[in-house]
Amino acid sequence: MKPVLVFFALLLAGCSSPQREPQTFTVSPMMATAYTGGEMIITWKAKVDETYTIYFTDAPRGKLPDWKPLPQANGLKGTGQQITVRDKVDSEDQRRYRLLADDQKPY
Predict the structure, then answer these.
(1) Cβ-defined contacts of 17-20 (< 8 Å, 24+)
(2) Which one of 37, 42, 55, 70 counts the least CB within 10 Å of its CB?
(3) CA 104 to CA 107: how far, in whole Å?
(4) pLDDT in tens, 55-107
(5) Is 1 within the bounds of a domain?
(6) What does the alpha-carbon distance between residue 33 and residue 91 come to, in Å, rounded to a whole number?
(7) Distances (CA, A) of 106 to 47, 72, 103
(8) Structure pTM?
(9) Which of 90, 107, 98 is nearest to 55 (CA)?
(10) Quick check: is 41 in a domain?
């Protein structure tokens, strides 16, 4: 069989397979960050009745992160308004953040 015919046969066979339900993945809320005056400022629009925690790691990219809850941003209740959290960090730090809602875990 010619390679082109094999390709079209496989293509058609794939088109007749049953449709699968799309997978849904929980997405972290959108957050904005800015560094100024020795502080990282983290801001996001919180949904009503959701609980938020910001996790941080100081592990550089490529290393296994050890995510820990940021003490001042652990279990914050959303009210539908913007939430702003400040974290004092040195400009040389490689700290990374994750904003998670409700029972989400960073790993």
Answers:
(1) none
(2) 37
(3) 9
(4) 999 998 889 999 999 999 999 999 999 999 999 998 888 899 999 999 888 87
(5) no
(6) 14
(7) 19, 17, 10
(8) 0.70
(9) 98
(10) yes
Q: How far apart are CA 76 and CA 54, in angstroms?
A: 9
- Cα 74 from Cα 76, distance rounded (Å): 6
Query: Burial level of 59, CB count in 10 A (0-12/13-18/19+)?
Result: middle
Element (H, E) at 75: strand 68-77
| Residue 22 pLDDT grade (very low, low, confident, very high; cuts 50, 70, 90) | very low
For the domain that residue 62 is a member of, what is the CATH number? 2.60.40
d(CA 10, CA 29): 40
Alpha carbon separation from 36 to 33, 53, 54, 88 (Å, rounded): 10, 22, 19, 10
Q: What is the Cα–Cα distance from 53 to 72, expressed in whole angstroms?
A: 9
Element (H, E) at 92: none
- Cα separation of 31 and 34, whole Å? 10
CA distances from 46 to 25, 28, 83, 90, 92 (A): 19, 11, 6, 27, 29
